[in-house]
Amino acid sequence: MGSGTRRRHRWAALLGATALAVTGGGALACPASAEPQQVDFATHCVPPPIAGIPPIDGTTTAKIAVDNATPKVGDTVTVTYTVVKPAASNPVDIALPADIMTPTGKVTLGGVQTGDITVAGPKKNDPVPGKGAFPSFSMTGTFTVTTPGAITLSPGDYNIHTSYILELDTPCTVTNPPAPVSETVTATDGGQTNNRAISLGTASGKPGDSVTVTGTNFTPGAAVTLAGRAGAAETADKGTTTANAQGAISGTLTVSDKATTGVVAYEGSAWSDAKGAGPAAYVVIDDTPLPEGSQKVNSSVKAGTLSMTQAGDTVELAAVDYGKGGFSRGSLQTVTVKDFRGGPAGWSLTGKVTDFAGPGGAKIDAAKLGWTPVCATKTGSPSTCQPGSPGSVGSAGATLASTPNGAQTGGEFTVDARLSLNVPAFTPPGTYSGVLTLTLT
Is the pTM here over 0.90, yes or no? Predict the structure, then answer.
């Protein structure tokens, strides 16, 4: 898969000549990760002029979470900025109904990689009473890792846009930037060649507004296309700029298409993972006045995650006779993969196994375990599951199943495999166990 969002789910199982059991008692679990640090910082908020009240100097409580705390250079990391307690409140006496607030903001990067990334949230909120406190809200965005080492993430400025009777903004800025660090990711050098990255001057605007797009690590002198994105598809918004001698870009994109939810930049005639960067989050605030007596009805589709589950934690492989040996056969517990991310990236499910340890230090080499993968795609899924090739699993690993990248991906899939452990003829009697690890990326 390309440099898309990479979520890894690891599941370990004990595989023996007679049984397969999950290490440590049978509970399925993803690796533990540290909770992001909730931080407080001074904030200066400016209510809309119509409210007739002075600026608000208060405290914002926020936290930042990432989908991958140990990325490689070239990976795209998804960031979620949650304002737990905003410094501002509803500045007017009029109660605000549900789902009229659109938050946008920025996250500040520090350490070995610096800059700001834009984040945006859906138009979704609980009702807010007149002069009542604004509720908690979350915003998401992405950034591409360009440098190995520790990268810090701090909450930045944010804006609360309300669309009720009037289109109003309440911008809140960090009084003493940067705010305290809430999360840190540690990047390793993955050897990937596409380190292109972009950032936006703002996370939102009205139809027809221009947004500044800056970027790094493009090919010096290359023509670069700036484009709006809605999910995996491009919108009608397009512009061009040229990378300077250092590979940096700086250009403006006029965003008029109300469907635009992000901005990308790429070299060549069309988007590619190899020569593109983004998307950077962007929201078009539709301020088109409604005809008298009309109501606007909005809806949204929320992106989900890439996940997997397995039907059980024990597999019985048939016993073989001492002196004869042969294949000890069985079936992998069915794995269900659900890809609800809604982006262009496919997925890959791989596995690797350790040597099979037996009595008195005896063992069966990991290369003796083979599989014949099978996978099925649920009707209506945009992607089609492809089984891996039959053969040895071994300690180096092999592909169990995958789906390709595409303009539209996702769906539900079931993955199975016939297992066969080739036991040498005079292997000492007893139970032999190895650890089979499946990894979804």
Answer: no
